[in-house]
Amino acid sequence: MKAFFLSRLFREKILLVAFALIGALIWITGVGERASAQMRAFQATSTELQVQRTWLVQRERFEREAQLAIEHLDPSRSLDTVRLQGELNAMARAAGLTNYDVSDSRTVRTSQFAVHSVQFQARNVDMAKLITFYQALAQRAPYLGLEQFSLAANRSNPAQLSATWRVTSVEIAR
């Protein structure tokens, strides 16, 4: 390889060295990007481990507070999926809502709780009825909770609103 390089003209030698430098630069850039990605992954993992360590250190306190909260809840007032949908229908009718939908529920279970969530959507209603429905929902806390809310005006009639709620209920495992 050395003999090949030395037998070339000076401008060919410069070109070969330039190609070698460009190749080395591309390789070093790739190594730098991979090293940077590894460093970011290391930092993210370190942060996640620190958060987990914090939760584990405070585990007993969280369990104690959860146990105290459970003792203050009345299992007969907690709602399963069917009762959640029925309760929302009753509150909607009592608030005067006529054009609404309650989606199927999704459930997340733990050893002590089952958390059910549904999407409740009311279309083309006035603000007073929405406030009445919200107040009825708020009176059922902590057994019913509002997780998400969005509100939009009807384009053809801005006095009418469309609202979407994600409502959750807690069912205490017996």
Describe it:
The protein has 174 residues and is an alpha+beta fold. The chain folds into two domains: 2-55; 75-172, Ribosomal protein S6/Translation elongation factor EF1B (Alpha-Beta Plaits, 2-Layer Sandwich). Helix content is 55%, strand content 24%. It has helices at 2-6, 10-57, 59-72, 81-95, 127-139; strands at 100-102, 106-109, 113-125, 144-153, 161-172. Strands 1, 2, 3, 4 and 5 form a five-stranded antiparallel beta sheet that branches. Strand 2 and strand 3 form a beta hairpin. Helix 4 packs across helix 5. The N and C termini lie far apart (81 Å).
List keywords for this structure.
single chain, 174 residues, alpha+beta, Alpha-Beta Plaits, five-stranded antiparallel sheet, 5 helices, elongated
* Total number of helices: 5
The low-confidence runs, each spanning 5 or more residues with pLDDT under 50, are none
- What structural class is derived from the secondary structure elements? alpha+beta
Largest sheet: 5 strands, antiparallel
Task: Tell me the count of domains.
Answer: 2
Please count the beta strands (DSSP E, at least 2 residues each): 5
Which outline best applies? elongated
CATH architecture descriptor of the largest domain: 2-Layer Sandwich
**CATH class category name of the largest domain:** Alpha Beta
Instruction: Give the N-to-C terminal Cα separation.
Output: 81 Å
Order of helices and strands: HHHHEEEHEE
At CATH level 3, the topology of the largest domain is Alpha-Beta Plaits
Share of helix among residues? 40-55%
What proportion strand?
A: 15-25%
